[in-house]
Structure formats: C-alpha cells, structure tokens
Specification:
alpha/beta, 5-stranded mixed beta sheet
Length: about 575
C-alpha cells in the first residue's frame, strides 16, 4: 500500500483484508436483517457506491463508519472496497460512528432509547445536551430514559408492535421478572393500557423493601399488616397497597440520596441510563495508584449509578464507574501488571406482582459484570482526567481577574484594547500598518496591536476612529478567554497567576469529594494532615463535602506556590 493512502482524504479503494475493526468496536448494536439483505443485493448488483470511512493505523486501516457495507462486502467475497481515508483520534472516530448511527432514517422508538443511552455516556448524562444534539424536547429525552428501565423482552415487544409505548412506560418502574411475567398476560389476554394502569394501581409493594422511613406506615390503612393482625395473621409480610404514596416517598428519598452522592462524584446517573458495555469499574488496582488518586478521582467521567426501580435493588449504587471507555482502556493498558478478571454480582429487583394484588414476591435473579483487577503499581506517568466544567470556569475567572490587574495599568494594553474594540465595529477598514492589516478577530487584533509601537498604534486608533463614522457591525467575543490569552504580555505573569489561586470555600465548592482528595494529594496537604494526626485525611474525606472543605481550610498549609494542574493548563 502506498504511503499516500495514509494521508489522503480522497476517495480510493483498499483491499478489504487491510481493514480492521476499531479497538472499541462498532457503537451500533442492532441491525435490521431485511434492510441488510437489501444492502447485500444492491452491492452484489452495483457494488459499493458510498465509500466507507477508515482511519490509518500503522501500516493498516481501521473501519470508522460503514460497518454494514464492509461486512456485506466480506460476505460476498469482494476483494476491495471504496474508502474515504481520514486521520482521526479515538474520540473523533467515536463521534463519527455516533453521527452515522443517529442520523439513520426511520429510527424506531427503541433505536431512539439506545441513542439516548449512547449519548448519556458521551455527554456525561447531561439530558439537555442530549436533547439539543437530537433536536428533541427535554420531555422526549426523559421519556426515553424511562423506557430504558424496561427489560429486553418488553423492548422487543414494543419493536414488534405486540404492546405499545404506553404499556412499556407503566411496566418500566418494576422489576425485570415482574415485567416479564406481566408482559405475557398483556399479550395473551390483550390488556389495554387503561386496564394495565388499573391493575398497576392495585399492586402492592413490600414495606421491608422501602428505603424511606416507614414509621408512619405502621398505622396506615393501606398497610396490609394492620388488617392481618386483626385476624391473627402475624406472620404476614407487611405490604403497601397505595403505590402512588410509596413511589412519592421513594422519589423524595432518591432525590436526597442523589444530592448526597453528587457531593462525592458530581454526576449521579440512573443505572439504565448507561449501557453496561459503556461503563467500567475503575480503581487503583485497575488503572494504577497514581492515575486513580490524582486523575480518576477528579475526573468528571467517573460517576456513580443508582437504581431507581422498585424492588430489592432500589437505591443500589455502583460507585467509581468510568463512562469514558476509550480513556479507561488506555489507562488499563498503561498499567504494567498483567490483568486478572473477577466478577462482581449485582442483584436483580424483587417486588410484588402488578397482576397479583396479594403481593407475591419475585425470585431474585443475580447478574454478574466482569471487572478487570490487577496488583497495585506505582507510576509517574502523566494522568488522564476530564476536569469538571465548573472547576474550569472558576479557574478562568481567577485568571481573568489576575490578567486585568497586571495588564490594565499598561498604556500599551489600554491602547491595544481600544484599537481592537474600534476595529471590531468597523466594516471595510484597512489598516495602514502592515502588522495590523492581515489580522482578523478580536483576540488576534489585540495581540497584533501589542506588538506595534505605541506611537504607531495611536495613529492607527485615530484612523480607525475616523473610519468608524461610516459603517458598523457587531460580533460576539469571549473576554475571559481573551484576557487569559494575553497574560504573557505582563511581567512575571505565571508566578503572579499561580499565587493568585487560593483554596477559598467558594472555589472548593465547585469540586467533588473525589476532586478535593486528588487536589490535596497533589498539593501535599494529605501528608501535612497525617503528620499531625494519623488517619485524619481519610477521616476528612469520609466526613462529607462540607466538613472536608472545613478540614482543608482549617489546616495550616502554605498554598502560595501551588495551583491545580487544570488551572495552570489555562495559562499559555
């Protein structure tokens, strides 16, 4: 294969034998067999018309988009296939895959639900971002998340038309076994949505599965134990027959639990919102001590999942879940020891049967999820971390203030800012100074003006002011980024900026508990606390976010020469 193939983005042909799958595979998980048969028939008759997208990988290539065309061509015994070669990072390749899958015509409801699941990992569970990407309302995204609670049998029944979305939404909150059993009755007995709603409202939920305080339930007339006690049935298991009340109290408990978990992780997602194949349990054994302590702990892609389905697993949490598969795999690969595979069992929910108002409990069905484990290893390698947006914005605000305090006293900067602002309003103005004539954009204009002699700049300001009387326009600019990008025009700007960062309560509140822990380890505060009292740092990290911040602020420590990596990364 010629080297030009590696760099060209033009259409060309490649031997199919030279094309491999991406390391993270194809994000599309289902395929319409009838349409696939039509595709194969078309390729057999006319060949592959639309090129597949591939990226260079050493002396071979990896398929990014067009898996169906490539697979069909292989099955038909074709030797080569038209391709579009494009150098792409892992993240870019994943985005191209998602783009192709999400832009398919006639996405079914289940396809839409899977798309929401896929985008949840990509956008860190931000439902508004998902809605914007899909050009949907937030309500539509929320409905698809709710449908995702359904088991595969229910989803398949919706796809085939055996039941409606209305049926699925009513089944969604309940356990897998309950959904499966009720589904059979819906289909065989042809239950309407209205009838299912009636049966669901009469169902029972065992009170021993409740997460909220059930003290008030002891005297409630909807508590079956109250009636059974009158007839000497003391061994009867207490169940609530007012599911509406049970769900409301459960939701209040879940909201409080989410708030508690968000202090530690920042992002709390529902178990069904992230596909099991899109998440991995991350810890020091899997990715290495240094990566986990200073990278993963502070990363916004490390989330916690919570199960909100009624039943035994209600409120079950899955902590330290990484939803960036690409980064996770790289971190695991860089961790030198050989990996060992272990299984972690997850319980399945257990609730009273909707169709059986007497409240007969489900049998539990354990599931397992493999997780990679290896011996701990120390490493000095650079860590991977996606810093939370709130932390970045707070750091930018500090640096903008620092830049303003350093640059505003300078006449040269004041003139440069004035010229850029005037130039920004002008249409058709041509600078008389060669150094200013070719620049465009507010930021670039400021930089260029700072390189021009002050006297020449004053002449330029006079001319642009004169020209301004003719035409004007307006553009949006980001002054925060502009001020930060011009810090290097100030003397000793880096040291001043680093000393400007201080761990105030307001600044630290943007961090999660994991991020705060990583921050303390990087700064060395953990060692100072441990020297004063053994075990004090671990105690502080487990005391809740507010108390942890108080412990940090109350510890005597010199922060003057320290600033977080993510803060310093903003300083050019």
């Amino acid at each position: 294969m010629e080297q030009t193939h590696h760099l060209s983005t033009n259409n060309t042909k490649l031997p199919i034998s030279m094309i491999d799958a991406l390391p993270f595979g194809n994000t599309r998980r289902t395929r319409d067999e009838s349409k696939y048969s039509e595709l194969k028939a078309s390729i057999l008759k006319r060949g592959v018309i639309q090129p597949v997208l591939v990226r260079p990988a050493a002396d071979r290539f990896e398929i990014v988009a067009g898996y169906g065309r490539l697979t069909a061509s292989r099955e038909l015994g074709l030797s080569d296939i038209p391709v579009l070669i494009k150098p792409l990072s892992d993240a870019e390749a994943l985005e191209h895959q998602m783009e192709e899958n999400l832009n398919r015509e006639s996405l079914s409801l289940i396809d839409e639900c899977k798309a929401v699941q896929q985008l949840s990992a990509f956008y860190n569970g931000d439902r508004q971002a998902i809605a914007d990407r899909m050009a949907w309302t937030l309500k539509k995204v929320n409905e698809r998340v709710e449908v995702l609670k359904c088991c595969e049998e229910v989803l398949d029944a919706v796809t085939t038309g055996s039941i409606t979305v209305g049926h699925a939404l009513l089944l969604a909150p309940f356990s897998v076994k309950l959904q499966q059993g009720t589904l059979k009755k819906i289909i065989t007995e042809k239950w309407t949505v209205s009838y299912l709603r009636q049966r669901a409202s009469k169902g029972q939920q065992y009170l021993n599965l409740a997460k909220f305080d059930t003290a008030e339930c002891n005297t409630c007339p909807h508590n079956s134990a109250a009636q059974s006690g009158l007839f000497g049935l003391d061994d009867h298991k207490a169940a609530c027959s007012n599911l509406s009340c049970f769900k409301d109290k459960t939701n209040l408990w879940l909201e409080a639990r989410k708030e508690e978990l968000s202090e530690k992780y920042g992002t709390v997602l529902l178990v069904q919102q992230i596909n099991e194949t899109d998440r991995n349990t991350v810890d020091a054994q899997v990715v290495g001590e240094n990566q986990f302590a200073t990278g993963c702990q502070a990363c916004q892609k490390r989330v916690v999942l919570i199960d909100d389905r009624l039943g035994r697993t209600l409120g079950t949490t899955f902590e330290n879940q990484c939803i960036d598969a690409i980064c996770f795999n790289k971190c695991v690969a860089s961790n030198e020891p050989e990996l060992e595979v272990h299984n972690i069992d997850d319980n399945v929910s257990d609730v009273a049967d909707i169709a059986d108002v007497a409240g007969i409990a489900d049998e539990t069905m354990p599931e397992s999820k493999p997780t990679n484990k290896s011996k701990k290893t120390a490493t000095d390698k650079p860590v991977s971390c996606v810093v939370p947006k709130k932390v970045i914005e707070t750091n930018k605000a500090i640096l903008r203030e620092t830049s303003a305090s350093l640059l505003m006293p300078q006449e040269h900067f004041q003139l440069a800012m004035s010229y850029a602002a005037l130039k920004r309003l002008c249409t058709g103005y041509k600078s008389i100074n060669n150094e200013l004539s070719s620049v465009t954009g507010f930021d670039a204009t400021i930089k260029a003006a700072l390189r021009v002699n002050v006297d020449k700049l004053k002449v330029e300001i006079f001319n642009v002011t004169k020209h301004l009387a003719t035409k004007q326009d307006d553009q949006t600019i980001n002054m925060t980024d502009i001020m930060i990008s011009n810090l290097d025009f100030a003397e000793d700007y880096r040291n001043v900026a680093v000393n400007k960062w201080m761990p105030t309560k307001e600044v630290l509140s943007d961090y999660t508990i994991g991020s705060l822990s990583a921050l303390c380890v990087k700064a060395g505060l953990d060692k100072v606390m441990e020297e004063k009292e053994s075990g004090s740092f671990a105690k502080a990290t487990n005391s809740g976010k507010g108390k942890f911040i108080d412990s940090i602020l109350n510890t005597s420590f010199d922060w003057s020469s320290f600033a977080p990596d993510e803060y310093q990364a903003l300083i050019k």
